[in-house]
Amino acid sequence: MAENGMNLRQAGISLDLSGKVALVTGSSSGLGMSIARYFAKAGAKVAVHYHSEKDQAEQLVREIISNGGVASAFGGDVSSLSDVESIFRQIDQKLGPVDVLVNNAGIDGKRALCGEDNPEDWQKVIAINLVGPYYCSREAVKRMKSRRSGVIINITSVHEFIPWAGYSAYGSAKAGLSMFTKTLAQELAEFGVRVVAIAPGAIKTPINRDVWSNPESLKDLLDKIAMPRLGEPEDIGKAAVFLASDLASYITGVTISVDGGMLIYPAFKHGG
Q: Which of 138, 190, 178, 175 is nearest to 154 (CA)?
């Protein structure tokens, strides 16, 4: 790590992930890209995963390598079991077995009320956001249990707690991923493997540019957040590095909300 990292180590505090292999699904853009960058800064060998954005994934790999890190890009569909198995085999051969898995790949899907929606769209959101993390975790667990160490971080959302009309598949997937986190943590604790979740709030990424670039919708969004700003992708990247590190060695089976206080319902600040 940089000079600050050395100072932390001298104080007995380590955020050093050197020697660890970290797979971040969906890391060719948005939150996943930030998480991958922070893992690389902490010394991890990073498996940059992409589905369709190969050029962006390879650009991130070049960036990490130019900064003295180790990274490789791996493509595939997380909702396909055969693709996931292939991704893990390739990582085994190129970087080594995965020590840290971040299940970040996901979509919010098309907005539609139940009964007015297309069941295929609903199933696609569930397949990518819930079945995908299951497939990836399944492969990671095979490698982590035998070594009696490892960390799985699932990226959920404040919508594992807060309903979001028109996005029932997204909310259901994220709530399901939360329970998957708890159950997997219970199964794996005796093997030295931790499983945690991060629930981002409103984070400023390209996927929601239409909201934060519009003054009216931005004001409405900020009214829902206790802290007077949107989150940045770096806020999630920093949280992920902490949870993957030994500083979080006694944390498992919980969701850490990184939401600027969205879940404390700031609209009630002045009374009910």
A: 178
Average pLDDT over residues 203-222: 85
pLDDT at residue 32, rounded to an integer: 97
CATH class of 14-257: alpha beta
Residue 11 has pLDDT above 60, yes or no: no
Active site residue 170: yes
Please say whether the beta carbons of 262 and 224 come within 8 A.
yes
Residue 249 to residues 204, 219, 252: CA-CA distances in angstroms? 29, 39, 8
**d(Cα 227, Cα 224) in Å, to the nearest integer?**
9
> Which is the catalytic residue, given 167, 170, 250, 265?
170
Q: What Rg do the C-alpha atoms of the chain give, in angstroms? A: 18
Domain boundaries, the chain: 14-257
pTM, entire model? 0.93
pLDDT for position 178: 98
pLDDT value of position 198: 98
pLDDT band at 210 (very low <50, low <70, confident <90, very high): confident
